[in-house]
Amino acid sequence: MPEPKRKEGGRAATGASKPLVIVESPAKARTIEKYLGRRYRVRASMGHVRDLPRSRLGVDIEHGFAPRYITIRGKGEVIETLRKEANQAPRVLLATDPDREGEAISWHLAQLLKLGDGEALRVEFPEITKRVVQEAIQRPRPLDMQRVESQQARRVLDRLVGYQLSPLLWRKVGPGLSAGRVQSVALRLLVEREREIQAFQREEYWTLEARLRTPNGAEFTARYWGTDGEKPEKVELKTEEETQRLIQSLTGVQFQVREVTRRQRRRSPAPPFITSTLQQEAYRKLGFTVRRTMAVAQQLYEGLDLGEAGATGLITYMRTDSTRVSAEAVAAATRWVENRYGKEYATGRARAGTRKPHEQGAHEAIRPTAVERDPEAVRHFLTPDQYKLYRLIWERFLASVMAEAVFDQVSVDITAASHLFRASGSTLRFPGFMVLYIEGKDEDSRTEEEGGELPPVDEGQPLELLGLEPAQHFTQPPPRYTEATLVRALEEKGIGRPSTYAPVVATLLEREYVQRQQRHLVPTQLGELVVDLLREHFPDVVDTEFTARVEERLDQIEQGRASWQEVVAEFYRPFARSLEIAEQAIGRIELEPETTGETCEKCGRPMVIKRGRFGKFLACSGYPECKNTRPLVVSTGVTCPKCREGEVVEKHSRKGRVFWGCNRYPDCNYSVWNRPVRATCPRCGHFLVEVRRKQGVVWQCGARCGYVTQPQSSGDGQASGNKGRTPADQSPRSGN
Hints:
Blueprint: E1 20-23, H1 26-36, E2 41-44, E3 50-51, E4 59-60, E5 66-67, E6 70-71, H2 76-88, E7 92-94, H3 100-112, H4 130-136, H5 145-172, H6 183-199, E8 204-213, E9 219-227, E10 233-234, H7 240-249, E11 255-267, H8 275-286, H9 290-302, E12 304-305, E13 311-312, H10 327-341, H11 375-378, H12 384-400, E14 405-416, E15 419-430, E16 462-474, H13 483-492, H14 501-510, E17 514-517, E18 520-523, H15 525-537, H16 544-558, H17 564-585, E19 594-599, E20 606-612, E21 615-620, E22 629-631, E23 634-639, E24 647-652, E25 658-662, E26 671-672, E27 676-680, E28 687-693, E29 696-701, E30 708-709
Parallel strand pairs: 1-2, 1-7
Antiparallel strand pairs: 3-6, 4-5, 8-9, 8-16, 9-10, 9-15, 11-14, 11-16, 12-13, 14-15, 17-18, 19-20, 20-21, 21-22, 23-24, 24-25, 25-26, 27-28, 28-29, 29-30
């Protein structure tokens, strides 16, 4: 057999060498290597390998916005190892994630490893299962440069905004701020909602319910609707006086059934998950933040060790905006439903959501790779987070191929003189998909639940009035956004794409533009100031329609219908003009300081909260005459276990790291790396601390007596500060 020829780019091959497959993560590498066997070597790039430099703009504006990529710091050794293995391999295949970002990573790898242009070296795994991996590896294709250019345009646009607008905010407002193309629009939505809530004028209204009894002795309730007649008119009760007059007019009046309407109502299951709906439902039902959801979903996609089965991918790719499902997956789900519940529960088809104008549709919906892999059967191999999310995906997909739920609905109109009351009831006739899964509801989409089953009544039947119950109500403002409803709003408006939702929410929180308050996202004074500044001087940056059009243009680049340089130029020319004008027009903006009630020990003036490079701190309001500062104390409510006099409070080291220590320092030097919680160890009486483990966040004894429990409050489970680090012997005392 003749010796294989030397490939382009200097890659030599020998008959004994194996093809090299490169993926992003070690977990994904282990799973794929199991499916490909000994004929291939699979290695991980450890994520991105090249990017724009962090210390400068890295975009040549004068020469077609050419990006200047550099090797990411710390990746030199990884790249050198991959280069050596690539030179020894007869073939190199790039199997990064099947989206624009994955395509760009493959292109960067091809550039660094000097792989041949136009060579069929790209493979995609929409799901990491043995069949799909082995089939895909036989069908490599050239790199899709339209995808690469679309991702490059997004990266360049975001860099132009971030590295030119953010410094303006630093100079005019304060250090540590940032502005982003999608982030700023999301912040505007939050600010506008908050102002809508603040401006809301609540209005009083009343309801009146009648407790009624049928001749057979059955009781039910009907609500006042309005006036009776050939054309019944809806009447709103605005005041207590109006309601009392109505009650007086009903004294001694006969209540009688006027009309009974019976109909059948059907309820369809929700379609299988896409990225945004997975994030929303995991937030509603599991209390997961969008970032936590995507981190766990990535683990389920890349593969987990299932004992004798080895590393196995449990779900299909989790960044998708399509509800499309393969016929093979639908057939498998249908068989499972028929075997478990019976043929009447199966439809043989999957529900598909309404296709959106901006939908890319490159991938299937998020679904289990094998419906036969019951969550309970693999539970002992998964962390609690992995199990919960996998079960959610598994149940949602199976429900999407199931039959509709059927309800018998009854509506009764009841007359009382010239007034009309209505009662409605609903009974479940056939549960359909509801035996397995019911979709959660957001706060702003909940409707008043229908009543239960009504007693049998006939038209013309008299009813006995047992009592009238008036109730006062007030109209409510629109609810604040949660992470779930913000993601839904971004998706509906075409802002961002599946890969951007989680980073956007995380950035808004990290920059302290918003705060979490009882699961709601509430803009801070700083967030409102930034939005007002951007709206005045950079209206396009915070305009929802403009941002959605930019997303459409990025899609057109991928489709080959637009040049990436043209799209960037369309955005940048007006942006650059606005930047020049804003630099001259905006003076120094001072945030109104937050008062604390504390006084300066040097001059007696009030102390206020200010921001620095490591976050907030206390400063004298008499600056610059008095430059006294001290750390901002964040209370935990936990008594110091060492001196029994002080309180354990949040602090920052000189390098900005969060730790917790006694507020009586230097008299007491107690400190701990993990956040104390207001819970006591039942074994030794010490307070508990929050610790991140592989299985998720737990509370453990701060004295290390061995006691561990699950957190008692719901939420995202994110530990504060230095997550996952146990208390160290050395003190993090610097920076007190």
